Amino acid sequence: MIKILIADDHAIVREGLKQIVVETSDMVVADEASTGHEVLDKVRHNEYTVVVLDISMPGGDGLNILKQIKREKHKLPVLVLSVHSEEQYAVRALRAGAAGYLTKESAPSELILAIRRVSGGRKYISPLLAEKLAFDLESGREKPYHETLSDREYQVMCMIASGKRVKEISEELCLSVKTISTYRSRILEKMRMNNNAELTHYAIKHGLVE
Fold first, then answer.
1. Each residue of 116-157: pLDDT tens digit?
2. Same domain? 164 vs 104
3. DSSP 8-state secondary structure symbol assigned to residue 106
4. Residue 153 lies in domain
């Protein structure tokens, strides 16, 4: 039996996932978590076959939560199920140790297939993501500016490009305004840009924000 930990801060999403899983005979939702801290606590004290993780949860940056799970339970497969498009976070999630990446727009049958695949020690990626990864491997391709950013810098860049102010970002990430301003300066420097408008234009052009 595949024992699943569902980690998502929205109760309605967790209920929906449980309804999908209940239709199967070989898997069960063994536990739920609604914050990053809760995810880590449950992973440390219980045994699961697969973690289905949303990377946008309170209580910690989702990619850092993913990395922490992999540090502590290296063999535990984590399937990321996110509202963010594959262009935004899939490659970063896979680099951080995810066994697969799905958007919340995916069909229920695709989710079940992905859970079965990663529980068996394999990876799961969509055809669209497979094409992107193949393109990224082409020799001589110049790295886009956003790929030079750290995971936290990338997160802040996407939030700025979505129109959020520094104060809003600091409150959402539980960091000081000064820290977010430092990130912003670093981001502009690395991406060779002068202001938020240029960042926003770049993010829209590359499909990094909806």
1. 999 999 999 888 778 777 776 665 566 778 888 988 899 899
2. no
3. S
4. 145-205
CA distance 125 to 16: 22
Q: Do 198 and 101 fall into the same domain?
A: no
Residues 16 and 117 both lie in one domain: yes
Q: Considering the entire predicted model, what is its pTM?
A: 0.73
**Domain with 65 in it: what CATH number?**
3.40.50.2300
Q: What is the 3-state secondary structure (H, E, C) of 27-38?
A: EEEEEEECCHHH
Tracing tokens 């969509």 back to the chain, one arrives at: 126
Q: What are phi and psi of 69, to 5 degrees?
A: -60, -45
3-class SS at 92?
helix
Q: What is the pLDDT of residues 31-88, one digit of tens each?
A: 999 988 999 999 999 999 999 999 887 655 788 899 999 999 999 999 999 888 777 7
Q: Is 161 found in the same domain as 81?
A: no
Task: Tell me the angle at which helices 62-72 and 86-95 cross, rounded to the nearest 10 degrees.
Answer: 20
Picking from 110, 135, 160, the residue at the C-terminal end of a domain is: 135
Strand order in the sheet with 2-7: 27-33, 2-7, 50-53, 78-82, 100-103
The percentage of residues in the chain with a pLDDT greater than 70, rounded to a whole number, is 94
